[in-house]
Every structure is written in structure tokens, then in C-alpha cells.
Amino acid sequence: MSKIIFLSILMLCLSFMLDAQSGKEYVPCSEMPDIINAYHADVTALDRVYIVNGSPEKTGRYKLLAEDYLSKIEKLHFSNLPLGCKVDYILFKRDLAESVFQAQNDAKEYSTLKKWFPFNDSIYSLEKIRRRGGALDAKNTALIFFTINKEIQQLQTKITVEKSLTIKDSRRAGIIINGLRTAAKNVFNFYNGYDPLFTWWVPDTYNKLDSALTSYATVFKITAEKNAPNKDSSGIVGYPIGREEIMRQLSIEMIPYTPEELIQIANKEFAWCDHQMLLASAEMGFGTDWKKALEKVKLSYVPAGEQAQAMVKLYDESVAFLKAKDLITIPPLAEETWRIAMMTPEQQLINPFFYGGEEFAVSYPTNTMDFTSRMMSMRGNNPHFSRATVHHELIAGHYLQQFMNERVNTYRHYETPFWTEGWALYWEMLLWNENFPQSPEDRIGMLFWRMHRCARIIFSLNYHMQKWPPQKCIDFLVERVGHERANAEGEVRRSFVGGYSPLYQVGYMIGGLQFMALKNELVGTNKMTIKQFHDAVLQQNSMPVEMLRAIMTNQSLESEYKSNWRFYTLP
After folding, report:
1. What is the 3-state secondary structure (H, E, C) of 484-503?
2. Against a cut of 0.85, is the pTM above it?
3. Are 169 and 224 in contact (CB under 8 A)?
4. Is 351 helix (H, G, I), strand (E, B) or coil?
5. What is the pLDDT of residues 388-426, one digit of tens each?
6. What residues contact 363, with CB distance under 8 A and at least 6 apart?
7. Of the candidates 94, 408, 435, which has an alpha carbon nearest to the alpha carbon of residue 249?
8. What are the start-end ranges of the E strands in 80-140?
């Protein structure tokens, strides 16, 4: 009887999903969506006013907002909420607490650098007057800008010999300086031309101040990189966060494993990939020399100018496969509304392969790249490699995620790479299991990326625990996975200086394994069909997979929930 009830509820949920294109949404209650929507509307309102990133005023105001909403949700009766809204309560409270934590951390970092910014309050006060169109003393404003310019020149000399300045300090200084430039620019743009005296007094001093601040940020960066203990021949200088912070962030992401255990998982998955790679290599006639087989696959690249068409062909094949197997509901509008872009050479230095979603960006050589870079780009983006990535980036991966996120349960803002990248990686695993690769070359291409995701866990965690320098990470990708060296350098640079969170690279494989475990738990026991499972996942919107599991398995939850789902069996 419980199984029949469960399936009835599921089919009702799916009917809402099928109506998503018309704007019809399924929400589990009103209390949590209302309060979450109100919070994000308040954040948006504050964003339009407090534009100076890094300022104590902005940090304090957002902290106050988060604390206010923490008080509001504490007044809700958790036990009276339906299950979906209990999940929202737990996750929203977690996110508010993290906002308070980060505001406190930002304030602490600002305080440690305050001696290098004795002039901040002068600029902040001018921007505060500008917000409401107050009158400025033009001559005094010019004097303030002139004086700060002189101060910066003196401080730059001191910074160059400051041995204690770290990459962390440099990053915070960059945020502060960008905020100061924004504040000064807004003051200038508002009054210049409008106020005759301002227009006469200020332009020259403002332009010199902006240049001085830009130079100041560069000096911070150069000095910090010079002091960096982990700088090596790669020239990549990131910011390893340490094991304690990794553990804290894993707790927030609801991953109840240590970094050492995650590396164990990656090595176990790597061993499976190694075995499958040897089977494909032997089938191609290369015996156990899988790198020779990999080299042959790399040489299958298409001619310059034809990569976009090759990717569309792979997309057509993957969508036809999904439909033939009836694996997931694909709204026709989702098929219609994605598009292709080509990456610039500059973008390819950070991301040598692709990115996806509504815009599917493809890497391939341009006329400005040298011969070596061109060949590495073509070899590393051959069709067999791309066979694992087109559906990852488009359907049923990132674009279908984006499409549904914008239409169903849109109040949920629990962005996490373990859901975003984990779902896309799960489809690589699933399509392998469903025999999507058509040849040993296809299998090698798909295995290359699966090995790459194992390697991401290993090199990123070892880096952040300060065990591996960047060059060792690059060498690991070249030797263990078979990357082109330039592509490996781009991947490591992207991981450590590309603006990604420290756990982002871990999220691919670990999130994929979470989805696979949940699929086995529900589909493998015949509680749902595979299509019902996939549709139900997208109906809930983004959240930690453990919380998705709580909803889909109808768990009993406490307000102070602690992650406990051990989704992967270790030796």
C-alpha cells in the first residue's frame, strides 16, 4: 500500500513538471518559499544600494540581514512543516549561518589590512553622500583624491618589502581596491559635467587616483606571489585552504567523508577506469599500452573550422539515444533554446575544453594561437573525448538543469557543485552503462574524462591540504590521465585561480556517485522507473543530494539535521 501511495504522489509531482513550461510550479508549502523569496528580494535591494564590495558598511549590512532572517525562521514551527519545507528550513538556515560566518571572516581580513588603507573612509564617505545626491565640496574632493594618491605612492614602497603579506591578503586587498575604484568612479560619474566646480577641480585628480589604485593592487599581488611558499615552476599561485577548512566546507555541503576518504574513493574509481581502459586498448590492438591507444584517439580530431558541426552531430546522437531509451522528459523548448559559442584563446588558457548550459562554448584553435597550442587544442577536443561531454553540457546535463531550475521550485537557491556538476557527471556514468559508446575509441574517450574527474579529487584535495604544489598536479594529469600538457596547465590554473570554490572539482565525481547511489536505491528496488527518477530529481531544483534523498525517500527530519548518508562503500 505504501508503495502505491508513494507512486501516486510521485506521478502528481511529475504532472507539475510537465506543466513547467507554462509557469506552473509545485511548491511544498507557503511559509518557506515566502520567507526565502523575501530574503533574496532584500538582498537584491541591498545590492543596488551597497555597491562597494569589501567595505565594512556593506559587510555589516548583509550580516545584519542574515541575522534578522535567522531570527525569523526560528519563530516557525518546524514540526508543522511538510517534508519539502523542512528541507528548505534546514538548508536556508544553513545558508544564513554561512553568510554570517563569511561576513565575520571578511571583517577579520579587512581588519588585518587596515594599516594599508588609511584613506578608505574618505572615499567611502564621498560615495555615501553620492547615493542621495548630496552636495560635495569640489575643491576638497580634489584635495582628498590628490592626498590619497600621494599616500598610495608611499605605501607601495613599504609593501614591496613586506614579508608577511600572503596570497589571502592579496585577494582581500584586491576586493577592497576594486570596491574603492567603484566608489570613486561612481562619485566622479555622478558629479562630473553636472556640477561645474566639480568638473573644473576633480577630473585630473580622479584619473590619477584610479591609476594609483590599479597599480596598488598589482603591487599587492606581486609581493604576495613573491612571498608564496607554494610557488613553483608552473607559475600558478593559488591559495590552499588547509584540511580544517576543507572539513568545514564538506560539512556545509553535506558530504560526511574526510578528504582522505574522498581520495580513497577516487582511487577506487580510478582502478575501475584503468581496467576498462586496458580492455579498450586491447580491443584496438595496443595490448596494455593504453597511452598508445589514447594517442590514436587524440589524432581523430576534426579539421579546423569543423568542430562546431561535429559537436552538433554528437548532440543529435545523444538526444536521440535518450529518447530511444525513454530515460527522461525533454521539453521541446529546451531542445530549441540552446546555442553554440566559440571560446577565445584567452578563455582557453583557463578552460581548454568547454562549458555548457544555455550557451555551449567550444574550444578549438584560432588563427592567433601558435602551432603547439593549436595542436594541443585539437587533440584534446577530438570527437571521441567529446562524446562524454556534449550531453554533460547540454541535455540531460547542464542546460536541462538550467531550464528546469528556472521553471520549477524557483525559490530554491541552494547552489552546490555536488548537484550541478554531479548530475551532469552522473549522465556520463549512466550513458556508459546504457552502452552509449559505440566503439573502443568511444570508450577510451569517455574513460579519459572519467579518469580526469577521479584525478580532480586527488590533485585538488592534495593541493588544498598543502601536500602537492601546482606543478605536481599538472604532471599528475599528464602522466596519469594522458592530458596534453598545455591543457593540464589550463585545468590546474582554472582549479586554483579561476574563481572556483575549493570543493568544486571534488563535486563532479562525488556528486555523480551520490546520484548513482540514489538511483540504485530507488530504481534498483523497483520503487520508481528510471524516467520517473530523473524527472523527479529535476522537479525539486538544486540542493545537496542528501537532502534530495530525504525528500524522495520520505525521511523524518530534525531541525538540527547533521549529514550522515554514507553513499559509497570504502574497503
Report:
1. CHHHHHHHHHHHHHCCCCCC
2. yes
3. yes
4. coil
5. 889 999 999 999 999 999 999 999 989 999 999 999 999
6. 343, 347, 348, 351, 352, 353, 354, 377, 380, 381
7. 94
8. none
